[in-house]
From TrEMBL:
SUPFAM superfamilies found in the cross-reference section: Putative modulator of DNA gyrase, PmbA/TldD
GO biological process: proteolysis
InterPro entries registered for this protein in UniProt: Metalloprtase-TldD/E_C (IPR045569), Metalloprtase-TldD/E_cen_dom (IPR045570), Metalloprtase-TldD/E_N (IPR002510), PmbA (IPR047657), TldD/PmbA_N (IPR035068), TldD/PmbA_sf (IPR036059)
Domain Metalloprotease TldD/E C-terminal: residue ranges: 235-442
PANTHER family per UniProt: METALLOPROTEASE PMBA
Organism of provenance: Alteromonas mediterranea (strain DSM 17117 / CIP 110805 / LMG 28347 / Deep ecotype)
Family in the record: Belongs to the peptidase U62 family.
Name listed for the protein in its UniProt record: Peptidase PmbA
GO molecular function, one term: metallopeptidase activity
Domain Metalloprotease TldD/E central per the UniProt entry, residue ranges: 120-227
Domain Metalloprotease TldD/E N-terminal span(s) in chain numbering: 29-93
Gene name linked to the record: pmbA
GO cellular component: cytosol
């Protein structure tokens, strides 16, 4: 069956469910439905470890009876099951407490244009090819250096899916999407030291993935480079976050400016709109309509149209991120962030990673972060870290078993430079980030 027909069939189901909800007494209703087909293959020590096929789908519906909300979901798409799900949602709504902020997004915010964002590049879910790919990645890693002694495995995933959202304001839209990924993790040993590291690649198009051999080699090289890691003394020094992990820093910013944190008064960036949070040279733009983007979408999970936005303007907090509910709690309007962010492009200072090391001089180059020691209310930050000790802009030796600590407000303002070499494998696209000073807790 052609993908267009499958999409139309799902839209028909969503339309039927919405009409049924109204007939059962709902004053408003919204429904979403997804279908995913996929394959996941993992190998270990160049032997097949696991093969999984996925063929999942389900429908979720929320109904509103006045200012009361009820929700239900079902994986059974028969007419009887759908009818039962709607009836249960309406029953639940009749017994829940009224909430003046509940309900669909405002009708004038709902998306009406649905451009093709080039998110769907189907490929046959070929088990033999997937197995060959994972084993090739592992073999390349194991062959790279005799100090690579073991493997934590390689995995290949391919997913083909579609998503449809509809509500009683009139939207009933969807799109297909694809996602492919390959990862490899290996273990190295030297004397009494053992280290592990990994590499991965992800894309909407399987043809744009890194080759299996290069993923394996990258994993092996990263592992070998960490052998002989030392502890370092406690100090206050500059810290450079490698681009592979730098997006996590901006992930904490996402949490701090999200409406849910704001109306609960649980953010360290309360009442900061228009205030200086980052250096004046830093801008962050959101671009939801990038063709082929891993976080692209023309509408959010509530049907609100997504549009280009300036998130940080000359270092100032330019906007908070609102869903319908959080915006009503805060007496404003949704700006299309139900379900997350959409392709953040973080500005840079034009430095290469080598330039950033020179700019840092002496300090810690962090390539791995561990733990979740971040307080979203105060901004206090403390996480386990590993990486490399740098002197005079030159990497001296690998480092492990340290903790880096600070406060996110100080860390944001203390960003000295951001590299031009970007990691584009997620919803935040950024280069490596150099912070002027952090507390390093070592031996």
């Amino acid at each position: 069956m052609q993908i267009e027909q499958q999409l139309a069939d799902i839209q028909n189901v969503v339309d039927d469910v919405l009409k049924l909800a109204v007939s059962k007494g709902a004053t408003q209703a919204e429904a979403s439905m997804s279908k995913v087909q996929g394959i996941a293959v993992s190998s270990r020590m160049q032997e097949v470890e696991n093969v999984e096929f996925t063929n999942d789908g389900g429908l979720g519906i929320s109904v509103y009876v006045g200012k009361r909300k009820g929700s239900a979901s079902t994986a059974d798409l028969s007419k009887a099951a759908l009818t039962l799900a709607v009836e249960k949602a309406v029953d639940i709504a009749r017994y829940t407490s009224e909430d003046p902020c509940t309900g669909l997004a405002d009708a004038d915010l709902i998306a009406t244009e649905f451009p093709d964002l080039d998110l769907y590049h189907p490929e046959e879910l070929d088990t033999e090819k997937a197995i060959k790919t994972t084993i090739e990645a592992e073999k390349a890693a194991m062959d790279y250096d005799s100090r690579i002694t073991n493997s934590d495995g390689a995995s290949y995933n391919a997913n083909l899916g579609m998503r449809v959202y509809g509500n009683t304001h009139g939207i009933n839209a969807g799109y297909p999407s694809s996602r492919y990924s390959l990862s490899c993790m290996v273990i190295g040993a030297q004397d009494d030291d053992m280290q592990r590291d990994y590499a991965y690649t992800v894309s909407r198009k399987s043809s744009l993935l890194q080759s299996a051999a290069s993923v394996g080699i990258d994993a092996a090289k990263a592992t070998v480079d960490r052998l002989g890691a030392r502890k370092i003394n406690t100090a206050n020094v500059p810290v450079l976050l490698h681009r592979d992990i730098a997006s996590s820093l901006f992930g904490h910013y996402v949490g701090a400016i999200s409406g849910g944190s704001l109306y609960r008064r649980s953010s360290f960036l309360l009442d900061s709109l228009g205030k200086q949070v980052f250096p004046e040279w830093l801008n962050i733009e959101e671009r939801p309509l990038i063709k082929g983007g891993l976080a692209s979408s023309s509408f959010d999970n509530e049907g609100v149209a997504c549009a280009d936005m300036t998130i940080v303007d000359a270092g100032q907090l330019a906007t908070y991120l609102y869903t319908t509910y959080s915006s009503r709690k805060l007496n404003t309007r949704s700006n299309g962030h139900a379900g997350g962010i959409h392709n953040w492009l973080v500005g840079d200072t034009g430095h290469s990673d080598a330039d950033l090391l020179k700019e840092m001089g002496t300090g810690l180059f962090v390539t791995e972060l561990m733990g979740q020691g971040v307080n979203g209310v105060t901004g206090d930050y403390s996480r386990g870290a590993a990486g490399y000790w740098v002197e005079n802009g030159i990497i001296q030796y690998p480092v492990h078993e340290v903790t880096i600590a600070g406060n996110l407000k100080d860390m944001f303002k203390g960003i000295v430079a951001i590299g031009a070499e970007k990691d584009v494998r997620g919803s935040v696209q950024t280069g490596s980030v150099l912070i002027d000073q952090m507390k390093i807790a070592g031996s």
